[in-house]
Amino acid sequence: MRIDRTHRAWAITAFAALAAAAIVYLIDVLNAPQGPRGGSAVGLTFGILGLGFVIFAALLGARKRVPTWRLGRAQAWMRGHLWLGLLTLPIILFHAGFHFGGTLTRVLMWLLMITVASGVFGAALQHYIPRVMTAEVPLETVYDEIDHVRALLRQEADRTVEAVCGNLGFAKSSTEGTQRAGGFTALRPIAAAVPLRTSSAVSAGASAAVATAPENTRLSEEESAPLRTFYLNEMRPFLECPGKHTHRLAHSARASGSFAGLRTLLPGRAHGALADLEDICDEARQLARQEKLHQWLHGWLLVHIPLSLALVLLGAVHAVMALRY
């Protein structure tokens, strides 16, 4: 969720509520002979408001699980979750008079601070990462299809190299004739010893025609030795594990240098296949980048959600104990 102009009303309301709460708290501090207390009328009001904000923020999960509920738009819930969740921390601090109190209260305060901090961190990620994804991953594909698309790129690279170097013993793809990627169907006829062109069609899911390779594309064993060595020792291991930063091909500038050097060692008729291999490496890097960004985009929830649930449960226990005893 990007923080844009649509958040303006929520932001203004939240800051206005914070200012009003601060004024009420200061008045209570000046008028209370023993200082602000959570059990006073003002303290209880702040406590009820804070618990209400926490419960509202927690209900976002239920709202997402039951999208058919006619309880407002999902975007409105998200904005409310962000701004009311952020407002919860100062409200609860006003409730406690900035004192952590006993063990349960201390645990609750630390839980609240960590939960709010993780939420702010997650909101920043959700605002920033989509921009990075658009700029750095122009061939973005469906996340669940990444492994499949990666396998297709590896198969395409195998065929491209074998069209130039001859049979290298790679297993043939079990998908003959039709390949699927990104939730779409990419109709790409597979011909033996013919390199597939426009590898971006694999991850884009578009239909692409196969350019028939010239008959003289095949190189002799001596001519193809540099490409064979490069592919077996560097490129194919990279395509199998593109996320490893130790690979030279994992870095765009270093990969360009590798392919530029390889062009000087190969005859001109192999340069077209080499360009295809360079495109495949670029797509593999983009898939690895998308995978890492996706993990950042959603990984923080592994901390935020359990802490939020613990906060709701312990907050309810604290409220019952405070009212009963």
UniProtKB/TrEMBL annotation:
Transmembrane segment boundaries: 9-27, 39-61, 82-101, 107-125, 299-323
Keywords, in A-Z order: Membrane, Transmembrane, Transmembrane helix
Organism: Candidatus Acidiferrum panamense
Name this protein carries in UniProt: Ferric reductase like transmembrane component
